TrEMBL record:
<dbReference type="GO" id="GO:0000281">
    <property type="term" value="P:mitotic cytokinesis"/>
</dbReference>
<feature type="domain" description="ZFYVE26-like TPR repeats">
    <location>
        <begin position="1"/>
        <end position="50"/>
    </location>
</feature>
<dbReference type="InterPro" id="IPR028730">
    <property type="entry name" value="ZFYVE26"/>
</dbReference>
<dbReference type="GO" id="GO:0032266">
    <property type="term" value="F:phosphatidylinositol-3-phosphate binding"/>
</dbReference>
<dbReference type="GO" id="GO:0005813">
    <property type="term" value="C:centrosome"/>
</dbReference>
<dbReference type="GO" id="GO:0032465">
    <property type="term" value="P:regulation of cytokinesis"/>
</dbReference>
<protein>
    <recommendedName>
        <fullName>ZFYVE26-like TPR repeats domain-containing protein</fullName>
    </recommendedName>
</protein>
<dbReference type="GO" id="GO:0005765">
    <property type="term" value="C:lysosomal membrane"/>
</dbReference>
<dbReference type="GO" id="GO:0030496">
    <property type="term" value="C:midbody"/>
</dbReference>
<dbReference type="Pfam" id="PF25569">
    <property type="entry name" value="TPR_ZFYVE26"/>
</dbReference>
<dbReference type="GO" id="GO:0000724">
    <property type="term" value="P:double-strand break repair via homologous recombination"/>
</dbReference>
<dbReference type="InterPro" id="IPR057946">
    <property type="entry name" value="TPR_ZFYVE26"/>
</dbReference>
Length: 53
């Protein structure tokens, strides 16, 4: 997941994180997506996190 975030492949990182059920990684991906302006990835991360709460 770290490598995918560093490479900017945030959607792929999200898919790996949800498959492994790692909410802390999904939070990191959402933050990285917000910084990168990838609102669609940020939105899907936040939606997944809300369903887990």
């Amino acid at each position: 997941v770290n490598c995918l975030i560093q490479c900017g492949k945030l959607k792929n990182a999200y898919l790996v994180a949800i498959k492994a059920k790692l909410p802390e990684e999904v939070e990191r991906i959402a933050d990285a997506a917000a910084r990168a302006g990838q609102t669609s990835v940020r939105d899907i991360c936040e939606k997944w996190l809300r369903t887990r709460s």
